Amino acid sequence: MACSFLKGLYNPSLGLVRSGPNSRVYYIASDNLLAEKALSSCDPTVSKAINQSISSCCNKGYDAMHEALLGAGIHVPINNSAIYTVANSTTSKLFRGVTPTAAGGNYTVLREVHNATGIFPDCTYADVTVYTALELKLEGNTTGVQHERDCLSLMFDGKGLIDESFKDGSGSEHGIYQTYKLALYLYALQVTGSYYYGEEDNLFRTQGPDGGFHTGYDQLGTYAGTQENAETTSIAILAISSLSTSPFPFPFPLFSIPPWTIYLFIGLAATAVVLVITIIFLDQRKRGNAGPGIK
Asked: Does some domain include residue 294?
């Protein structure tokens, strides 16, 4: 269903997915960079077409941050982003020569690149923390990965990620859990080998009937008036795919079970053993006190 939602955003004339159902804006990154990967397993033809489109103008669509999800290296600390206009049909700046008529109306193609002068402070934003952790893992920096993972653990409250945007962000972010950050968190836990099954439930609840994932949810788990878009749905697909392709042979590997559950069963087993030994001991003692004439 999520795949179908993304395909519904696809414009074959441009070879790109739009940012949302009612949008005429197409982002090279992160939307199409991630949509290409998300669609690769369910519609390789569309995925290949998107790859050709973003590679024709924009270095595979890489933006110095989001490609970390695809296993590509990035620079850390991560720089702030700048937005560049690749095409704007209203000013006759066309994308690959595609006219508004062919595209179904006027359109704008934008590209986000993390090459601005400022840098994101460490452990302030959940998404940046995840991308940093993925890069440090790629470098083999286990200490750095653990640090970023500890930061994410502090942000996660059992429902979603409480970071600077949640606490002091704009109206669309303040007090609203961002779905894509939860998906990134689950993805990072899976990749770094510390995932506990069950935390994906909140993610699945944000999926709409048409397959798209809403951008946010509130404390009650409702959509909080948020819309579905390409970026959130693509990241959700990648996170879910990482869970379904787990290398573990069983759906619930032993170390994915919460420790308190393991301790409970160990305690019950030990109690049962003590009880059996006690019963045997009392039975033997009773036999011994009954005398030789009693069988």
From this structure: no
